[in-house]
């Protein structure tokens, strides 16, 4: 009798175990990265360059070579403040995005001094179709990507705010850019930046697996003298061209939207994701 009971109990545990294993596998499967860049072409992206119409790729600024998105200025005679952005085809709301980039070569003639080894990931941005021909940057939260000059300290994954503002430590901050606490990445090395975006509540920046900045309540610049602006709950994702050649070899995302209204589940999912330290490997 005892033997039969133990066998039955073992069978139940096995069934439960299989169920838990299946659930765990399902959760793991749902957390897989989706590649926004297919490594071949830009068919799922839109281009907006200042002074040019939507999807006019002036000077072949955005191109794909060697499996990388490349920002190049070989056909420019002068940069002339022709800031550009490469937009993914659809907006997102709650997600973790990972981008691996490196700066290469020399800045194009006419590029501003501050744009040396400078690019960015724009999140919660406006629809490129709503940008004016001469608009320089989409209204967005910019995760600024910077490379070092070989000697001075220069953090990356900073925050800039074209047409936007945010809260940090309970205070609304209106300054255009603030630095993260990341280390400096000199030379042409690959660097991985991840950005956790949770609707209008929280944004966190990571560099090679280390948190370097967090802030809350991303919002548009206020109107009519108000202190607070319209909260940003979703928006476009884009990559910048700001006059220095840059390569992007990976642009990937984990959509967290289905967990957005389940705070406890979301917390566990984020903890699981960030328990792994993802560092860009060098060629």
UniProtKB/TrEMBL annotation:
Keywords: Signal. Residues 1-26 form the signal peptide. It comes from the Bacteria. Residues 32-253 form the 3-keto-alpha-glucoside-1,2-lyase/3-keto-2-hydroxy-glucal hydratase domain. One of its GO terms (molecular function) is hydrolase activity. The keyword Signal applies. InterPro entries: AL/BT2_dom. It holds the Pfam family 3keto-disac_hyd. Transmembrane segments: none annotated. The keyword Signal applies. This is 3-keto-alpha-glucoside-1,2-lyase/3-keto-2-hydroxy-glucal hydratase domain-containing protein. It comes from Arenibacter palladensis.
